[in-house]
Amino acid sequence: MSLLFVNACMRPNSRTLRLARMWLEGYDGAVEEVDVAHANLAPLDPDRLATYSSAVSSATYDDPLFDYAKQFAQADEVLIACPFWNFSVPAKLHDYLELVCSQGVTFDVDAAGSYVSLCRAQRLTFVCTAGGLIGDEANDHAFGYVRTLAQVFWHIPHVDKIVVEALDAPGAHVERLLQEALAIG
Ligand SMILES: Cc1cc2nc3c(=O)[nH]c(=O)nc-3n(C[C@H](O)[C@H](O)[C@H](O)COP(=O)(O)O)c2cc1C
């Protein structure tokens, strides 16, 4: 059993990372980690998109651009941790997920236009902390985005979240809030 930990925490003293590490203490199995903050990631700009598109149309995925997608497809379980930024996820996590969403590697499209998963994972957990309140689900472009990819592209049946809000509120009991979230999650 192998778990892929997508660590998209951006600060050295990240509370989200502390929460993710506490969650991992309860995980019994091999863990492979991707350090998104320090990874050499970039969006699919015109040059990279040309490489990506020609590889996808010829179904030849030897370019290193597809390494993250190949690794993701092989994981039995996935943990993604990131801070809540501007009602969404940090741009580097978006860059990473853009590459993971490689047609022919983590998902495909059948003749009827339906998505077919090429991933092994049966469970994905999303760990996130926010400075304020996330509020309405319609404004949550962090978990909402990850959940859509997980369910629609990768057909992951168990998608859970552990989210702690209001950590930047004056007088917030950060440690207590983190512990409580883990106890509930
Ligand atoms: C660039 C940036 C954008 C942020 N955007 C939001 C936001 O939209 N909503 C919110 O509640 N907090 C926001 N915050 C606060 C963080 O979500 C909060 O401090 C979080 O706990 C940081 O996690 P960390 O300790 O793991 O870095 C933002 C912080 C930064 C640096």
Question: Explain this structure to me?
Answer:
- The protein is α/β, with parallel strands linked by helices and 185 residues long.
- The protein has a single domain, classed as Flavodoxin domain (Rossmann fold, 3-Layer(aba) Sandwich), CATH 3.40.50.
- Helix 5 links the parallel strand 6 and strand 7.
- The longest helix is centred in the N-terminal third of the chain and has 13 residues.
- The mean pLDDT is 97.
- Bound molecules: flavin mononucleotide.
- The site of flavin mononucleotide (FMN) has 18 residues, from helix 1.
Low-confidence stretches: none
Q: Per the principal axes of the C-alpha atoms, what is the gross shape? A: globular
Distance between the termini: 21 Å
Per the CATH scheme, the topology name is Rossmann fold
Largest sheet: 5 strands, parallel
SSE layout and pairing:
Blueprint: E1 2-7, H1 15-25, E2 30-35, H2 46-58, H3 67-74, E3 77-83, H4 91-100, E4 107-109, E5 115-117, E6 123-129, H5 143-153, E7 158-164, H6 174-184
Residues 9-11, 14-17, 83-87, 129-132, 167-168 line the site of flavin mononucleotide (FMN).
